[in-house]
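Researcher: Following up on the earlier apo prediction. This time include the ligand. It's pyridoxal-5'-phosphate, with the SMILES given after the sequence.
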Amino acid sequence: MIARMASLPQVPAPPFPGEPERLSVKTAIPGPRSEALRARHAKHQDARTVHVYQDAKRSLGNYLVDVDGNVMLDLYGHIACVPLGYNHPELLAAWKSGRFDWAAGYRPALGVAPPAEWVDLVESALMRIAPPGLTQVMTVTSGAEAVENAIKAAFLRLAHRRRGGKPASPDELAACLRNEQPGVDRFKVLSFEGGFHGRSLGALSLTRSKAIHKLDFPSFAWPAVPFPGNRFPLAQYGDENRAIEARSLEAVEHVLNSHPDEVAAIIVEPIQGEGGDRHASAAFFRALRKLCTDYGAAFIADEVQTGGGVTGHWWAHESWELSEPPDLVTFSKKLQLGGVYLREDFLPAEPYRLFNTFLGDPVRLAQLDVIVEVALRDRLLDSTRITGEFLVAGLRELEARFPSVFTQARGAGTYAAVDVREPSMLPKLLERFRHAGLEVGSSGTASIRFRPALVFAPRHVAEALEVFARVAAELA
Ligand SMILES: Cc1ncc(COP(=O)(O)O)c(C=O)c1O
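Model: Understood. Below is the ligand-bound prediction.
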């Protein structure tokens, strides 16, 4: 690992100003102050999921400082939500300079009386990074809301097509108020086993990663098919992966044939995130896009976790080189607010069909504006690509050194993961990593996932992998 440090790849991004040299651990993690806060917090909120309590002001760049003074290298980024690291000077300067002042005095209902600045921000932040071919964007707050509105847009388009563009009949208008919509009640969205699309009730019917998310909640009886979930390294398992993908595509086509004109959309994550960092090939997604076109189903790329630059592109689907863009692309997390990009023809025929009170948050979009500026200026996506290659190569090396502990290293950009060979080891491993000063998270049942900020650089990779190797040597 020392040898690796000497040969760190160069990235175009400048170092994060003033960032700590490295992690440092002073107490158990979580430490006594975190535990005291948890006890207070738990009196009013469910605090069982909290890793540590963070010192918001002292955290810097890739280093999360907790209330006990531990400086942790952050590989998890608040579940993939931190684009520029903690307290990036440009974000703080924008805040202090008054750039966001116009947004401080009230929270608007953006569908009713948006401030003029909102229109500037939609252009300069959201449209500047819009997926090619998608010209409309609806903003909301969270990823689940983004998914809800994407599937609603797909349902609206299917209903509009069925009616031949005519307005709804008086019978239809009356029936829907009784929760009866003959025909429409049979509309479906097809999703993939192992996928995660949120926890609101519509989105939850599409979520199929873990039972604990779904248990005891009513759901729509919508179809699901296996996600291919390629094995790694790809070159070694090429034939096997192609066969798995072909079977998955056959299952998709079977569903489309079994429910003619009822499948409004197919929703898919470019890389299954919560379900265990499962990847499929670009060829698979191109074939899926074509099936959607052939059968008139909307193609929804759920980029809530993969969007925002972490794969080395603003949108993971850009690497598929589709001949026709996705119809709808959902986002949240690193973009700081939720939303869905739509192709022009998915704009509903009438207003208020996709609507809510806030329709997003100007403060968050103003922050995104700065984030996009910095990402472009500092070439953070190019850096993420280089850092990601170094990271995955390092994980492969670890896998080779500790085959009894690690397997299946993989990634796109710094959206990377490695599996533990024995899933029952995962909780212990995560605990050891945290005690050693890494803020980490898992995905699926066996994966350690990397979801760092766009300022994550090769030196952070080397530091993280040193800890991985030390802990693995203790366990192997
Ligand atoms: C792919 C994907 N879609 C939707 C969601 C839901 O987002 P939120 O938790 O903001 O509702 C997530 C959250 O992890 C996600 O990873």
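Model: The pocket of pyridoxal-5'-phosphate is lined by residues 142-144, 147, 196-198, 269, 273-274, 302, 304-305, 332 (CB under 6 Å).
Researcher: Noted. I'll compare it with the apo version next.
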